[in-house]
Amino acid sequence: MPEPYGMIAAMRIILITGISGSGKSVGLNALEDAGYFCVDNLPPKLLRQLVATRMEEGGETLAVAMDARSADSLLSLPGDIRQLKQDGHDVKVLFLTAKTESLITRFSETRRSHPLSHRFRPPGSNEQPTLTECIQLEREIMSGIEGVGHVIDTSGLSANKLRAWIKDLVETERTPLTLLFESFAFKFGVPLDADMVFDVRVLPNPYYDTALRPFNGRDEPVIAFLDSQAHVAELLADIRTFIEKWLPSFKNDNRSYLTVAIGCTGGQHRSVYMVEQLARHFRASERVLVRHRELS
């Protein structure tokens, strides 16, 4: 007869939630690949019961996906999270979102209806709501949860890149705070998950040098060009000083992640260079992750 499981003291728990079409299924699959016991579309009111059951079974990890289909019990989720933390569990919340135009494109490509399309009717109408109306309603429903965890903007992200980002975040789950530096192009919009945004479009642009255009900010020719510009060093020092000044406050606020977004016109040269330089500096004292949104 097999030995019964021994009940453990605490678990590592990741709650993945957000807007429909933003990649929750991709994220949950990535967590399953990382060894997590995964449950999809769990009503929030059952979360603490599930945790207790997994502890009795000796489980050490748990990943749960929740969304607006359980809208009636979402209001209790922040309190349940606080209680789980007080009980000693390591709880992280990932909130996935995307720009409305990206969500519309994804639903069109998959030809799936929105989960809320059959659950409500617009005021004064007996017709099914439009996709845009469903997305707007879901944003309103989920607004109370968005601020609880780390926001990931999946607009324009491939499934493979999102899986890689989730994997990086899982690997940092035991650290007090992770500094996440992200380069982006202003012409494609500011990342929705940014906590700090710095605009480096004032710097000389390597794009206008035809010899430098094919390279990016991680390549030596571009690095040498930007290293030679006095204003680049000045702006880099200012950004570094600002982050160093306010980082302790974010740590004291019990933040798990701090996303610093650096933007230029095309997201290829200046922003990439600045992110790499900042990451190299802060790696000496902090846990650092790097994202380059516009680089394939």
UniProtKB/TrEMBL annotation:
UniProt: GTP binding residues: 67-70
Instruction: Tell me the ranges covered by the RapZ-like N-terminal domain, including all copies.
Output: 11-173
Where would I find the RapZ C-terminal domain in this sequence? Answer: 178-295
Q: Does the keyword ATP-binding apply?
A: yes
Pfam families attached here? PapZ_C, RapZ-like_N
* SUPFAM superfamilies attached to this UniProt entry: P-loop containing nucleoside triphosphate hydrolases
Task: List keywords of the entry alphabetically.
Answer: ATP-binding, GTP-binding, Nucleotide-binding
The record lists ATP as bound by: 18-25
Please give the superkingdom of this protein's source: Bacteria
Q: Which Gene3D superfamilies match?
A: P-loop containing nucleotide triphosphate hydrolases
Q: Which InterPro entries match?
A: P-loop_NTPase (IPR027417), RapZ-like (IPR005337), RapZ-like_N (IPR053930), RapZ_C (IPR053931)
Q: What name does the UniProt record give this protein?
A: Nucleotide-binding protein
Q: Which organism is it from?
A: Noviherbaspirillum aridicola
Q: What is the lineage of its organism?
A: Bacteria, Pseudomonadati, Pseudomonadota, Betaproteobacteria, Burkholderiales
